[in-house]
């Protein structure tokens, strides 16, 4: 019977290919998700980004697809910590973020 507790060598290591990186995705199911995303970007993103403020002014629904998904998600995360939203509003944003990758 072989001894399975012998020291491993580099040759014994099996290398698995890494999985391809997924592109960030924001899943907007309905007009409420769109509205909360627009609100979060206009509240927390645009005022802190001179380029957006100068280029867009306020973001509308037609502008969302031109923004980076991670930027929108970061704005939503800030909104989740805010004092401006009710518990119901925060639950909508939490669902939106958990449904997105």
Can you count the helices?
A: 4
* Mean pLDDT level: 83
* Uncertain segments: none
Q: What percent of residues are in strands?
A: under 5%
Largest sheet: none
User: SS-based structural class?
Assistant: mainly alpha
Order of helices and strands: HHHH
Q: Compute the separation of the termini in Å.
A: 49 Å
How many DSSP E strands?
A: 0
Question: What level of helicity do the residues show?
Answer: 40-55%
What overall form do the CA principal axes indicate? Answer: extended
Radius of gyration (CA) equals 22 Å
Total number of domains: 1
How would you summarize this macromolecular structure in one to three sentences?
The protein has one domain (22-99). It contains 4 helices and no strands. It has helices at residues 31-45, 50-55, 69-80, 87-99.
Structure report:
This protein is mostly helical and 101 residues long. It is extended, with a radius of gyration of 22 Å. The model has no long low-confidence stretch (mean pLDDT 83). The longest helix has 15 residues, at 31-45. It contains four helices and no strands. The protein has one domain (22-99). The chain has helices at residues 31-45, 50-55, 69-80, 87-99.
